[in-house]
Design brief:
Strand content of chain B: 15-25%
Structural class of chain C: alpha/beta
Chains: A alpha+beta (538), B alpha/beta (415), C alpha/beta (402)
Shape of chain B: globular
Radius of gyration of chain B: 22 Å
Number of helices of chain C: 22
Strand order of the largest sheet of chain B: 11-2-1-15-18
Helix content of chain B: 25-40%
Shape of chain C: globular
Structural class of chain B: alpha/beta
Number of helices of chain B: 13
Helix content of chain C: 40-55%
Largest sheet of chain C: 4 strands, parallel
Oligomer: heterotrimer
Distance between the termini of chain B: 23 Å
Chain lengths: 538, 415, 402
């Protein structure tokens, strides 16, 4: 029987944060994720590292946590945080009285909010609507959710932490009111087995209710749908927030090569009620036009939906009305020792949340080591030598990206692949500048089971063509490398393109439908992927 | 105002070129308004006519399904007689230009693709003629070391499953002298083989590995010119058959076809205006009297007796999709689309069903004249051809270029 | 074109531009228009780096012509190149080639064009040009002994109420004034008086390709103001250089977004389109003398990019007995000063190969083309005489004896 001292349920930001924290404190920890890391809300959000400005008025405590964590993450997570800074912009439609309240609140919480003239703002961000009324600079930043997750895992692994993806929790084993293990199932092989443990931490986001139910315990979590729209390029190089009480369509985040507009808020039917609708997209764009007047003429790449895990002791609270603070529930109160749930909060405060619950776990298990996650960088900074070396092997605008995505160790491996086969320096994904070598390295990772897993690690297929060109190349590369999960090549094509389609389908107009005509022309018209489906079924 | 011409064809993709050529062959003075190079060099130079029925089952031959298509399908409008004429017309041109196409309406050709599937089609250039595959004892799939758009093992593995040949399909890699410079596409390799040096090197590398009489499947790289110089010289030297597999853009077979058609159109007197973005038509009494281009400088007006609209579908800009509606931007022709966006498409991308959005377009009568909801002709002197027609999903049924050819021929013949 | 539309959004990554790019065909060092244009633009908006391959774009516009999506590919390249060169020290070569107007003015002060040309001949022989990175073998244009502007002053025009303003551009003014003189004669034959404005400066095309965008912007501001002044008077502005025309009408709008450029553009004409319009309105003087000449015609890429076809073919076709055939062999390779650069000369010649071959096979002795540098390249690579269409028309009018 596999064993671990602590089993963490949920491979989102909180879960990997806990895994890293526990591992750094010398606790043997294992993380379970039902799909791939970031399957839940940790990849389905706008990628904003809050300054706290958004919460300053309504929830000063949350605002304070944000600004403190923001400053910590910039230091320890240099390779996933882009210090873009942010603007709070009041449009003619927004209440002037709120502006004064907001300025005061930011001051109280300790968030720097520097007023600038509209002219200056338009100079910084020329695509902003010229009719905006007032603008403040705040220390917002952008954070790459996928990268943050993988780098936390990489760090945890160095300290002995383990991760099982595509592994679902199906039971919590208890003896005399004490957790003794978990029953899990590998969803790819359908194999189920038991892992012995002393403690289970549920960091399953919108799924915490389901997880607790396995132990017969009730946790009131309300999954709340938030839909976001990704645009093809950087409309803005700074985060732009609307200066009004938090509402829909308020935030634009430059995220790598794209811009993300979010979000909506509506009751979700289930934790994975994550199919965006056309109405949500149209609504977001209608609202977004107040900040960027030409928004309609910019190209949508796709839309995506996540569910916020809103917790309330009061089962009637909903939507943005519910608190965005996090809570820790020690289920010893309900009579089960060795089981705790952490729920609520936001990506920006994931490290703090992890620290708090790790403190609880450690005190109960008798570990005394201090938390060091606020001071120790998540990944080591690659040396100047290796950065210089990367420039020799990666194309223009490819080296820096690869360095920050890969970190020193993997970077060396990718460079070695290129040295061995110079043709692997070519770009598999020409939109996001990802080399064949990097995709092969990511595909080779033990946590990759399908092309979408490789996508999340590399960003391949996440740019302009949304897989039109790189799907063929990545299937070819996986097949040529003889990877165990790559045998059914037709299945690889379908999995990857179907996953892209899910976000494209609700925005099927303008250039999105044009790109789809191209993609179908290639895969269905020319390569006859469909015909292969028929062959299988006949 | 430009002096009046007989026919203005809007769009220089496959449908536009065929319309212009057909009209010019009928003695008309033709002005071809081009904006962008169309999709031939993306999609390819093979003429699919009909590969699958509505249920997704493969057809025995292209013509086996022509009469079975739904009443809304462009083939129903054109009629099987005119389709046959259009095919013959095209084959005649190709023959005249020294780049003959292989195939007939009553025989399905199953050609290999870059994924190792087979795809049903009707007409292919001789470089893609798949007949040698059926007879082959040995097949070898040949790729190129720097070519990232073709994976010989993938092709061999999947073809092995389908073909069940006595001998396993082998693979070989030809080394390209491309260690420096940009990423390699089919086009780079085709240009390399355009030159005698490249061909010599190719032959030198393969001579030992290849037994005479085998069939070699390779990416579409047998030269960029609409002739068979490269194919013939390789076949002669290596004494084996070559079959280009259908693959990723840029499409070299499409490039050859495009070159052939443009040169033919010019030869028979078609005038082409490039970068002519037509954005408006002037309509009087149910007839178009002129169309206007709008560049960055000024509006230019062009007038003709009749007009053929071959502006493509969503991709080509002939149809513009907005949330819940579709617009034909030049003549504002009626286009029906579901108002609820979710009804535009199937949840599953590749399935046994046609995609609804692919079938959105302009409804026409048997003369390719645009119709309104009531079935009345909207503009008397305008005909529509190609991807902007409603009622077909070319990807699903494999009718790409076939509908374009048939409707363009029909549109030009009915002027 | 609105500024916010100069972005990569319309691109679907389809590769059509790669197929049509003559530079991509000639060298593997260029990553191709899709990569350097829209694809890398997304990266440039999010990170800092340098792309040496960008220097290979010749701004010939074939990508823009072929793009099925209307992406301003070459403009994205030129803007990126300017950004890349900002605050960097530029080579003497780039300075010289982009500042043709300045160089011409310098050599015209003293000791005169003749000496400057002798100087150039010596420089070629001594390899001085090669030393700065200019190809000695390239068809560098000699200076004319007198500029067009000087010679224009000596012309006695018949005054007509209909007037047009001539934008000569650097090449005609300093290197090939005869085209300008022929233009004046052709306009006179059609009842127009030609006005020349000495306040016009270089259109900026060589500055843009050299990455000197700020200077090009300054030139654009000057020219736009002057053009506006004439257009308000009701005088159309005419060029005999397709690159100047493209710059004044289109590229000013794409690159600089100056107020008034769109209004100006409505009234700026290429000479052959202007004559074609006269013909369409039955007001072209078609009293041409008969000739038995056979010509080939080469359409400059910068003309094809303007979206009004090839009017020179129609107008030349009106001359009795004159036979003109479109050689239709793609880009000549010169692209302004691209083919003058030592590291681009071979590429430029390779691009022109197909054209040169067709010219040589045709055995004609004169090739007609609307663009001055195309004519240099064709004379050099095709070993033929060349002429601007107005020169042929002038001769045809002269033959008619009226």
């Amino acid at each position: 029987m596999q064993k671990a001292t602590v089993v963490i349920v949920g491979g989102g930001a909180t879960g990997v944060g806990i895994l890293r924290d526990l591992s750094m404190r010398g606790v043997d920890a294992l993380l379970l994720e039902q799909r791939d890391l970031g399957y839940g809300a940790s990849s389905r959000y706008h990628g904003l590292l809050h300054s706290g400005g958004r919460y300053a008025v309504k929830d000063p405590e949350a605002g304070k946590e944000c600004i403190e964590e923001n400053m910590i993450l910039r230091k320890i997570g240099k390779h996933c945080v882009e210090v873009t800074e942010g603007l709070f912009v009041r449009t003619p439609k927004d209440d002037e009285a709120f502006e004064a309240k907001w300025v005061e609140a930011c001051g109280k919480v300790g968030i720097s909010a520097i007023p600038i003239s509209v002219k200056e703002a338009l100079n910084l961000e020329p695509n902003l609507s010229p009719n905006i009324k007032s603008v403040y600079r705040v220390p917002d930043a952008a954070i790459d959710g996928f990268r943050m997750l993988w780098q936390n895992v990489a760090s945890a692994r160095k300290y002995g932490g383990r991760v099982l993806t595509y592994t679902e929790l199906i039971g919590i084993e208890q003896v005399n009111g004490q957790v003794v293990g978990v029953k899990v199932r590998n969803i790819l092989t359908a194999e189920s087995y038991i892992i012995g443990c002393d403690f289970v931490v549920s960091a399953a986001g919108s799924w915490v209710g389901e997880v607790a139910a396995l132990a017969g315990i009730k946790v009131n979590v309300f999954p709340d749908r938030g839909t976001l729209v990704a645009f093809n390029h950087r409309i803005t190089s700074r985060i732009v927030n609307r200066l009004r009480p938090a509402s829909d369509g308020d935030i634009f985040v430059p995220h790598g090569s794209i811009t993300i507009l979010g979000t909506t808020s509506a009751e979700a039917s289930r934790p994975d009620d994550t199919v965006p609708t056309a109405d949500e997209i149209v609504k977001l764009i209608d609202i977004g036009e107040c900040l960027f007047g030409n928004l309609r003429s910019y190209r949508i790449l796709r839309a995506f939906t996540g569910t916020r895990p809103l917790y309330s002791a009061d089962p009637n609270a909903t939507g943005r009305g519910a608190s965005r603070n996090f809570v820790i529930l020690d289920h010893a109160k309900e009579g089960l020792k060795g089981f705790a749930t952490i729920v609520g909060g936001k990506f920006t405060t994931y490290r703090l949340m992890a620290e708090k619950i790790t403190n609880l776990v450690c005190s109960q298990l008798g570990f005394k080591t201090e938390c060091r996650t606020a001071i120790e960088p998540i990944v080591e900074d690659p040396s100047p030598e290796i950065k210089a070396k990367a420039r020799l092997y990666f194309p223009a605008y490819g080296a820096d990206l690869a360095v920050s995505r890969l970190g020193s160790e993997k970077l060396e491996k990718v460079i070695q692949r290129i040295k061995d086969n110079p043709e692997k320096r070519q770009l598999l994904c020409e939109c996001e500048n990802v080399t064949l070598a990097e995709v092969e390295e990511a595909a080779d990772d033990t946590t990759s089971y399908m092309l979408s897993d490789v996508r999340r690690k590399t960003r391949m297929g996440m740019g302009t063509c949304q897989g039109a060109f790189c799907t063929y190349r990545s299937v070819g590369a996986v097949d040529a490398n003889g990877l165990s999960w790559g045998k059914d090549t037709n299945g690889l094509f379908r999995e990857f393109l179907q996953a892209r389609w899910a976000g494209i389908r609700p925005a099927l107009w303008g250039n999105v439908i044009r790109e789809m005509e191209l993609t179908r022309g290639i895969y269905e018209g020319t390569l006859n992927i469909n015909g292969a489906i028929n062959d299988e079924e006949n | 105002m430009m002096k009046k011409t007989d026919v203005i064809v809007i769009g220089s993709g496959f449908a536009g070129l065929i319309s212009a050529i057909t009209a010019a062959k009928n003695g008309k003075e033709v002005l071809l308004m081009s904006y962008g190079a169309g999709t031939l060099t993306i999609g390819g130079g093979i003429i699919d006519v009909l590969g699958y029925g509505d249920n997704g089952n493969p057809l025995a031959a292209p013509d086996a399904g022509l009469d079975l298509v739904d009443g809304a399908h462009p083939y129903k409008k054109v009629g099987s007689l005119a389709i046959a004429e259009a095919i013959a017309f095209f084959k005649q041109i190709a023959e005249e230009q020294g780049y003959p196409y292989v195939g007939t309406l009553n025989k399905m050709q199953w050609i290999p693709t870059a994924t190792g599937t087979l795809k049903p089609t009707c007409l292919v250039p001789a470089t893609m003629d798949p007949s040698s595959i059926a007879e082959a004892q040995d097949i070898m799939v040949v790729g190129f070391d720097y070519l990232k758009d073709f994976y010989p093992q993938l092709v061999a593995k999947n073809l092995d499953k389908i073909l069940n040949l006595p001998n396993k399909i082998s693979t070989a890699i030809v080394k390209l002298p491309f260690s420096e410079g940009r990423d390699v596409t089919n086009l780079d390799v085709a240009r390399w083989l355009d030159n005698e040096e490249g061909r010599k090197e190719f032959i030198k590398q393969l001579k030992r590995a290849v037994k005479p009489g085998i069939t070699i499947i390779l990416p579409p790289v047998l030269g960029t010119m609409p002739d068979y110089t490269v194919l013939e010289s390789l076949e002669k030297e290596l004494k084996c058959s070559f079959v280009e597999a259908a693959g990723m853009p840029p499409s070299i077979t499409g490039l050859r076809l495009q070159k052939m058609l443009i040169s033919y159109a010019k030869k028979i007197g078609v005038t082409i205006i490039e970068k002519a973005a037509i954005n408006r038509a002037i309509i009087e009494n149910g007839k178009c009297i002129a169309v206007e281009t709008k560049g960055l400088d000024r509006v230019r007006t062009y007038s003709a007796e009749s007009y053929i609209l071959a502006t493509g579908g969503f991709y080509g800009g002939g149809l513009i999709a907005e949330p819940g509606r579709v617009v034909e931007p030049i003549f504002n022709l009626p286009v029906e689309a579901p108002d609820q966006q979710e009804k535009w498409s199937n949840e599953v991308l590749f399935s046994n069903q046609k995609q609804p959005f692919a079938q959105i377009g302009i409804n026409v009568n048997s003369s390719m004249q645009p119709l309104n909801k009531e079935g009345e002709v909207v503009l008397k002197n305008v005909a529509v051809a190609g991807r902007n027609l409603s009622g077909y999903d070319y990807c699903f049924e494999k009718s790409g270029n076939g509908v374009a050819l048939a409707s363009a021929y029909c549109a030009a013949m009915s002027l | 074109m609105s500024k916010h539309l100069i972005n990569p959004d319309l691109c679907t990554a389809c590769t059509t531009c790669v197929v049509s790019c003559p530079v991509t065909e000639a060298t593997r060092k260029f990553r191709g228009p899709k990569a350097t244009g829209p694809a890398l633009e997304r990266m440039r908006l999010s990170q800092q780096d340098r792309d040496t391959s960008l220097e290979y774009c010749s701004n010939c516009k074939n990508c823009d012509i072929s793009c099925p999506s209307g992406v301003p590919i070459s403009t994205l390249n030129m803007l990126a190149r300017a950004k890349q060169h900002k605050n960097t020290r530029r080579s003497i070569r780039d300075q010289i080639l982009s500042h043709g107007e300045k160089m011409a003015k310098l050599s015209n002060v003293f000791p005169g064009a003749k000496l400057a040309n002798i100087g150039m001949t010596f420089s070629k022989k001594l390899g001085l040009l090669d030393m700065v990175g200019i190809e000695g073998k390239a068809p560098l244009p000699p200076y004319a002994s007198q500029t067009f502007l000087k010679q224009f002053k000596t012309i006695k025009q018949v005054s007509y109420p209909d007037k047009v303003v001539f934008f000569p551009g650097c090449f005609i003014n300093y290197n090939d004034p005869q085209v300008g003189l022929d233009f004046v004669e052709v306009m006179q034959k059609n009842g127009y008086e030609v006005v020349v404005d000495e306040a016009f400066v270089c259109c900026g095309s060589p500055l843009v390709v050299g990455g000197f965008l700020d200077e090009a912007h300054d030139n654009a501001v000057k020219n736009c103001a002057n053009i506006k002044k004439w257009i308000e008077k009701g005088y159309p502005v005419i060029t005999c250089c397709t690159s100047c025309g493209l710059m004044l009408k289109q590229e000013y709008q794409e690159l600089f977004h100056l107020p008034g450029t769109a209004e100006n553009a409505r009234n700026i004409y290429d000479v052959m389109e202007f004559l074609q319009n006269l013909h369409d309105n039955n007001s072209l003087n078609t009293n041409f003398g008969s000739t038995a000449s056979i010509y080939l015609y080469h359409a400059p890429c910068h003309l094809r990019a303007q979206g009004f076809g090839l009017p020179a073919l129609d107008i030349l076709g009106l001359v009795p007995g004159l036979k003109v055939e479109n050689v239709d062999a793609g880009c000549c390779g010169i692209s302004g000063n691209y083919g003058f650069k030592a590291d681009k000369y071979a590429i430029s010649q390779k691009i022109g190969e197909r054209l040169f071959k067709k010219i040589k096979e045709s055995k004609v002795d004169t090739v007609i083309s609307d663009c001055g540098t195309c004519r240099l390249q064709i004379a050099h690579g095709g070993n033929v005489r060349t002429a601007h269409p107005v020169t042929v028309l002038k001769a045809a009018y002269a033959k008619a004896g009226n």
